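Deliverable D2.4 — example input (structure tokens):
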């Protein structure tokens, strides 16, 4: 099996100015199999969804919450089928988060 380098979709990156209140954004095109997520100044929690009702949730006592991307890092995630939106929230502070659809690792 050959692993291909991550190849971004042209002009498909979207941003969220994440705060402690969940916000979401639609991807502009069919996104492919992976998304490169780059977090800014604060840790962020992200959630993929099929429509604008998607919400990212932060840590709460005993409740499930969204996956974390550490401040200043970038990670590639496989994308669930029918994903059209992504949401982000911070546990504290604010962070600009970029989501770049593409294929490969």
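Example output (designed residues):
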């Amino acid at each position: 099996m050959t692993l291909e380098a991550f190849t971004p979709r042209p002009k498909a990156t979207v941003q969220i100015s994440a705060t402690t209140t969940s916000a979401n954004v639609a991807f502009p095109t069919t996104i492919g199999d992976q998304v490169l997520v780059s977090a800014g100044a604060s840790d962020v929690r992200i959630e993929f969804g099929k429509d604008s009702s998607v919400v990212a949730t932060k840590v709460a006592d005993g409740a499930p919450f969204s996956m974390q991307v550490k401040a200043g890092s970038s990670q590639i995630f496989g994308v669930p089928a029918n994903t059209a939106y992504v949401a982000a929230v911070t546990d504290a502070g604010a962070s600009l988060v970029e989501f770049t659809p593409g294929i490969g690792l």
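Strands lie at 7-8, 14-18, 23-26, 34-38, 44-49, 67-69, 74-78, 85-90, 95-103.
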